[in-house]
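Lab meeting minutes (informal)
Scribe: AK
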Amino acid sequence: MLHGAVPVPIPPREALKTTERFMTRLGPLLRHHRVLICTPAEHDEIRAAASTDCQISRFTALAEAGDEQFGRATAQQLADTATADWPLCTLHDDAYVQYTSGSTAAPRGVVITYRNLLSNMRAMAVGSQFQHGDVMGSWLPLHHDMGLVGSLFAALFNSVSAVFTTPHRFLYDPLGFLRLLTSSGATHTFMPNFALEWLINAYHRRGADIEGIDLHKMRRLIIASEPVHAEGMRRFAATFAGVGLAPTALGSGYGLAEATVAVSMSAPNTGFRTETHAAAEVVTGGRVLPGYEVRIDAAPGARAGTIKLRGDSVAAKAYVGGKKLDALDEEGFCDTHDLGFLVDDEIVILGRQDEVFIVHGENRFPYDIEFIIRGESEQHRTKVACFGVNERVVVVLESPLDSIIDKAEADRLRCQVVAATGLQLDELITVRRGAIPTTTSGKLKRRAVAQAYRDGTLPRLATHAWTADPDSAPKTTRSSLEGAH
């Protein structure tokens, strides 16, 4: 950065679990960018995969300030650069490149300018309502926009203290994170919806062991990054009310990398709100933050449509397929590829365009079904992916212990889904642990699971399929146990 380079946060190898996934994720970066700095352990294989146009260097070489080249300068020259020689940045200059999670498509390198970053920091300051003495707490990865901007940069911009732990530590000991919030006196934290379930399940697994947890100081616990489930929010509020979590502290938000991070947030001291859409309860994304213009592109007479954004926080460029391209339409709007609607000054997110499926002529989303299956299955921490194929509703359930769901359990789960959503499952498939892919931020890759289903490459352990009787009563027509493909 001292010589005008633009940083690109990337996930560590540990977040991608296998060398193959790590190299697949690095592929677009190796095409787009001129220098990649890595650990010594990663150096040789990354160098072998890189094109001749991308220089691969070690962190240790930079720290040692030697003669190794970093772009147009050596490490020693970078170390010797005087403050007066640092380049002056303008608001139009690129600050960093944030890659999207890639849950529904290949990751895009969103180019965030200093204007985007400053605008979003100001907007988040309004939504977060930081005060002197506040503390931000986070376990979110810093290669992800919610961790980097929503947590680290937000604390720096608002001059408040911050405490961090790792995603791995949170997943290993969720309640330990709440104890960290307690010991640090944290007042603000942000996390995705799945974290609520991890915390609730950890609470029940530990026999309601809440020693050392006190959330009286927590004023802004915002759930965002993925669809927020109303019943999950209520369960979390009820579970931790006894340790001081105020109902008004638990709120919701909406954001995306293309808008730097935050677009909307529950108003302070109000808690989360819900709306009804198509007979379903949905949590709003909160009040639209200052500086945004929101447009809903809906069919005539329809309430919901594609959400489009315009404003100083919205990125104008992105790296796609090896090229830096315009990311806005001719009117300056960004297509979020999310579906939703506005209610007064709040935005309601229904889901991703790429994840909607049609049943009997109606648009349906997978999130409620997945929430129900996760809550009803014996392995509460399992991954569940739902999708539609030719108006059939398919659920793929990952079994942590490679255990088999029998016919009676499958029928019970199906009845729970029908009772809660009115939708009948057509197929329930149990797969081996690790078969459902996720992004580096933990989001399900539902399209990848659906494609594996169509290709016949799911590592199935068991399959249960149903048809409906003429009177609509569920009837099991096929159950089978299968080895891994």
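Next up, CB showed the second protein from the same session:
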Amino acid sequence: MGKTSRKESETPCKETFEPFSVEVKTQATAVSLLNSPEEDIIVKACEAIRTFAEKGDENKVSLLGLGALEPLCRLINHNNRVIRGNAFTALGIMATNGDVSSVLKKLNIIPSVIEKLTLDEDTVIHEYATLCLTTLSVDFVGKAQIFENNGLPPLIVLLSSSDPDVKKNSLQVIFNLVQHLALNTLQSVTTDKDTRSTFRNEHGFEKLMDILKNTKLTDLHAEALQVMANCLSDSETVQLIHSNGGLARLLEFILTPNTPEIKCITIKCLTRVAQSSESRKVLHEQDVEKVLVGLLSVENTSVKALVCQAVAAMGLHPSSRDSFRDLGCIPAMVELLS
């Protein structure tokens, strides 16, 4: 029996391959199928991943561990509109998890998402692209990337969408972005005394306190504290901080783990509050001396420098001087000279 030649074995088969259905039983299989060359298979894999992700955060994290994000991020740029839509649906659902959104920012997904906000894309893509951005626009890094990629104009256009979910998501992203912009603007304008007076009369200080008391808005706390520091140059604002629990909140910012930037701005606020004898008395009753002395041992030199200014301000209160002496403040400050 003769051997089949190589040429004959490579001859394409003229028969059509009979299609058959595949039953996907695990999420790992669904993730693998995202790399299939068959478009129908990709669509079904996306649908399966979306359904699995909708069942809870644990499932989203599981898909993250299986490597679902990279192929989904690639598929939102697919030339097939149906695949793009299904990929965005799965990605949007997964992005509502904090761990997933953190990885998405590292994968630099924001430029691709913003590109799909054009009016020639389907509504379903708009809905889930904006859903992705609602979670990606919460922290400073995400906000910066959206601004850098000119994401605000298309979001404003989508406010006119006939789809209520697209409108809602777009408005939420804009709200996240505008809060940051508004606080940066207020940092500049509240250096002026008349502007601070207007800000105070419009109950702006109370709104600042609302932001500072909201643990879900931690990305806005540094900017809000900087505005507060400007406002505390006025005695009228110092009186406000006494009446609404603001001093206790400032001390919380120092006592709880925070970035050096937030600690610095908070200490600056305390120093400005301590310019009046009444405020020094209240701060003394809050044991602020113990907090300040504790901060003299931190590594950050900017924090320690501002603590020294706060100690100088509080030192005008006789009882505070006694407290600083008893707490070993003087040896600690002398140590800083070496």
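CB comment: Residues 190-336 form a domain with the Leucine-rich Repeat Variant fold (CATH 1.25.10.10).
No objections, moving on.
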